[in-house]
Design goal:
alpha/beta; three-stranded parallel sheet; 10 helices; binds glutamic acid
Length: 312
């Protein structure tokens, strides 16, 4: 199988440095293997993810010196999740034959009630309330509101070795719980869409932030149900500021719109490569010049401090 990586941004804002680090490492990892690289726009929620922001991401990636073999505007609609609903419908139907999917009427407030068991990453373990509804109760509730669709997870532990974080295991019922496949407004959930897309697009490696490590067991389980070969996962450290606080889209001063006014692409790439252990100094460097020295063993597991040059 040809190695194939991808960058899969949700264009709900301008790229910030954390996204840049992710795109850079995903690109380097694929290119260092002589592999293909895809750009998939994860705009499942089109209200939050306008096309202009997706176009800006493409522009920012080109500015950084990163390229891709398929995806984005040049490939038509195929790599925009907002245009792939019929594909997700098809795989949802396949899943319905292989797992137990059930309607869930629980409100957000009910799900996040203080009594609900919280998982280590802040998510709430679903108590299974709607799994036990009788057909009559379901019919009655359907008259009041449209349900989300949840899948029932089996008594199974998913083990995998992350390329950065090492061995990881998750017991589906107690550490994940039954999860949403489709929202009550009909929008397919990230977990379903990302698995279908990575599987169908021939993605062999997924590089993304450590904050998505806990999603991986669910995705591996779905990959197997669909008959796909799960990709190799690399969950990269997050960038944090001096106080150890994770950078986010709210840190407007660190979005590429402003960074492009202050720095050259080589300065941004050089500083991030240094922070990620891939360069001996933060000196400016072209992304392409890092391919030959790319090595996952150099990338640390733990959070990375924002390089000094970015402090205003
Ligand atoms: N679209 C997700 C994000 O921007 C990334 C999903 C993934 O890489 O699996 O956070």
């Amino acid at each position: 199988m040809i190695p194939c990586g991808r960058f899969a941004p949700s264009p709900s804002g301008r790229m910030h440095l954390g996204n840049v680090l992710c795109a850079l490492l995903a690109w380097l990892s694929a290119r260092a293997k002589g592999g293909r690289f895809l750009l998939r726009i994860e705009d499942l929620d089109p209200d939050r993810c306008p096309r202009e922001l997706a176009d800006l991401i493409e522009d920012d990636l080109r500015w950084l010196g990163l390229d891709w073999d398929a995806g984005g505007a040049a490939s038509g609609d195929e790599y925009y999740q907002s245009a792939r609903t019929p594909v997700y419908e098809k795989y949802y139907a396949i899943l319905a034959g292989r797992a137990e999917i059930y309607p869930c009427f629980c409100s957000r407030a009910a799900l996040h009630a203080a009594s609900a068991p919280h998982l280590s990453d802040g998510r709430v373990l679903y108590a299974g309330t709607c799994y036990h509804l009788s057909p009559e109760a379901i019919a009655e509730k359907r008259r009041q509101r449209s349900p989300a669709a949840r899948v029932h997870v089996p008594e199974e532990t998913i083990h995998f070795t992350d390329g950065v974080q090492g061995a990881y295991a998750e017991h589906l019922p107690s550490e994940c719980g039954d999860f949403i496949l489709r929202r009550s407004d009909g929008v397919f959930a990230y977990q379903l869409a990302v698995t279908v897309d990575d599987g169908l697009m021939g993605v062999t490696e997924v590089v993304r932030g450590r904050d998505l490590l806990e999603s991986t067991a669910r995705q591996i389980w779905l990959h197997r149900l669909f008959g796909f070969q799960p990709p190799q996962y690399y969950h990269i450290p997050l960038l944090v500021d001096h106080d150890g606080r994770r950078l986010s889209k709210r840190d407007d001063d660190l979005d590429l719109g402003l960074l492009r006014e202050r720095f050259t692409p080589e300065q941004v790439v050089g500083a991030l490569a240094f922070a990620a252990g891939l360069a001996p100094s933060p000196a400016p460097v072209r992304a392409a010049d890092l391919i030959a020295r790319f090595d996952w063993d150099k990338v640390p597991k733990t959070d990375l401090h924002l390089p000094n040059v970015f402090h205003a």
